[in-house]
Amino acid sequence: METCQKTVPEAIIAFLESTGFEDALRNAVSLGGDSDTLACITGGIAEAFYGMPPELQQETLKRLPEDLRAAYELFWQNLERRM
Fold it and tell me: Gene3D superfamilies from the entry (predicted)?
């Protein structure tokens, strides 16, 4: 059975020791272990704090399948309407 008792604190530390979005992800991956989960958690925190560099966001979106990219766009359109 997996728990978050080790992963979440490590992700928070990776963020707290970072100087930017990409640095936070590099910190998380460098910890090893369950690095994909660490990077996901750390990335969520880092994006909320630093924002995501536009060039990285564009490259990421290019790699998504069309249906996921459409879902992403719909999510942001709905979010913007509520603000």
Answer: ADP-ribosylation/Crystallin J1 (1.10.4080.10)
Task: Name the more confident of 33 and 21.
Answer: 21
Model confidence, pTM: 0.80
Domain that holds residue 23: 1-52
Give the whole-angstrom CA distance, residue 1 versus residue 63. Answer: 32
Q: Residue 33 gets which letter from DSSP?
A: S
Nearest by Cα to 56 from 20, 15, 18: 20
| Mean pLDDT of the region 51-66 | 94
Whether 31 contacts 4, CB under 8 Å = no
Instruction: Report yes or no: 27 and 10 within 8 Å, Cβ to Cβ.
Output: no
Same-domain status, 45 and 8: yes
